[in-house]
Amino acid sequence: MLSSVGCLRALLACWLLQPWARLAREPA
């Protein structure tokens, strides 16, 4: 169960950080 939660956490972190990474790469 712990590994499952960790996996979901990592996936959520990736999903949340994706837009920020894109903004950092392409500043408006």
Describe the structure.
The chain has 28 residues and is mainly alpha-helical. The protein has one domain. It is built from 1 helix and no strands. It has one helix at 2-25. The longest helix has 24 residues, at 2-25. The radius of gyration is 12 Å and the shape is rod-shaped. The N and C termini lie far apart (41 Å). The mean pLDDT is 85.
Quote the distance from N terminus to C terminus: 41 Å
| Rg value | 12 Å
Low-confidence stretches: none
Total of helices: 1
**Based on helices, strands and strand pairing, what is the structural class?**
mainly alpha
Describe the structure in brief.
By secondary structure, the chain is mainly α.
Defining traits:
single chain, 28 residues, mainly alpha, 1 helix, rod-shaped
Write the layout of secondary structure elements.
Blueprint: H1 2-25
